[in-house]
Amino acid sequence: MHALPEDHTGVRMRRLRRERHLTQTAVSELTGIPYSTYTKTEQGVIAATPHVVAAFARGLRIEVSTVVGQPYADELRADELDVLIRPIREALDIYDLGADPDIRPRRLEELNEDAEALLVAVRAGEIKQAASNVAGLIEEGTTAAHALNSTEGWLTLASFYRTAYDVAAKLGFSDLAQLSLARMDWAAQRGSDAVLGGMFQYLRALTYLREGKYAIGQRLVARGLSTLQQADGSRDREVVTGQLHLGGAVMAGRAHDQNEALSHLEEAERIAAATGEAVKVHYLTFGPTNVQVHRVSVLAELDQYGEAVEATRGLSIPQDWPKSRTSHHFAEVARAQMWTNRLEDSFQNLLKARKAAPQQAKYHPTVRETYAGLEAAHRRLPETFLSYGSWLSSATGQVI
Questions:
Q1: Based on CB atoms within 10 Å of each CB, which residue in 50, 220, 230, 386 is the most buried?
Q2: d(CA 182, CA 170)
Q3: Is 21 left (phi over 0), alpha (psi -120 to 50) or beta?
Q4: Distance from CA of residue 232 to its chain's centroid?
Q5: Is residue 205 part of a domain?
Q6: What is the phi-psi region of residue 126: left when phi exceeds 0, alpha when psi lies from -120 to 50, beta otherwise?
Q7: Are residues 336 and 282 part of one domain?
Q8: pLDDT at 248
Q9: What is the pLDDT of residues 3-36, one digit of tens each?
Q10: Is the same domain home to 335 and 274?
Q11: Closest listed residue to residue 242, CA positions, set 259, 228, 257, 260
């Protein structure tokens, strides 16, 4: 029995195609996906790559999240995460109402400590903890920011909005992620912080990356780089600049623009050599290690899976790296290994992704697509393979 029966992206692509009364040939012509690649993806013979998913979504004029099945409603309900989304949405909606007379905000120093704790929780993979706390803190931070009307107050509120974005993006609520970013920009402008403005453009570009709208994403990367030129020279500015180049590299890689992707990587590598490891600067995890990790991702996005696997040689993840970023990396390596037929190694990296940040891995599309790609060959994998699939689709009410 399959652990995820009839629940992979290919199945959804077939259903969406049939709903529009299209043949496989018509979809191939409409999307630019080679016919053989499309039919094998639909059948589940090969895994759906982000490039194929994005091309399919653009061609049929639907959201990428619809194609990949996000948000994963049953799992969110089982893990009691779905009930945390509405309070966040409501907290984001009161941004312009001024100070709430029924809320007595704590000192700004205490709110800053909570903002920092939220950022740490997300990067430790503790999504449920962050989701449980962020709505109330946004409400308190909104009142404090309006009452104080100071740079520090607005930037603290912007940090709360950033965590709302992190939670929404990781759980697959793209509309809520975009709304959170709009609020973050609104607060950052009142705080007059050009570096934060550049980071906003980076996070905004990532939302278009997920939606397969690479041209818009690349324009946002360019705008972010331009915005940062308005900031005073500092290590913070260099870190955000470098991270924007890494985002641009993945964007170009997914668009299969190799020259642009490698150009961004080279610039990020140059900047990282000067900044060194800057894991905690705006919690972007920027530095030489992240450049190496992104090189693996970019090569995979270019469908150069063998080169991506080769790029992992000698790559060591530091102990102080955020578990969320570590989990993401293992998922990317697993994908590359699956495409190079290193099935056992691929599955082992899926296990590492789960161990590093189980809550994140469970809701990560790359983890799910890689598992689906391995599923057809599960006879060559250990018995624990099917238990992994059961975990992905578990309805136990417990986050494993």
A1: 220
A2: 17
A3: left
A4: 29
A5: yes
A6: beta
A7: no
A8: 97
A9: 444 568 999 999 999 999 999 999 999 999 999 9
A10: no
A11: 228
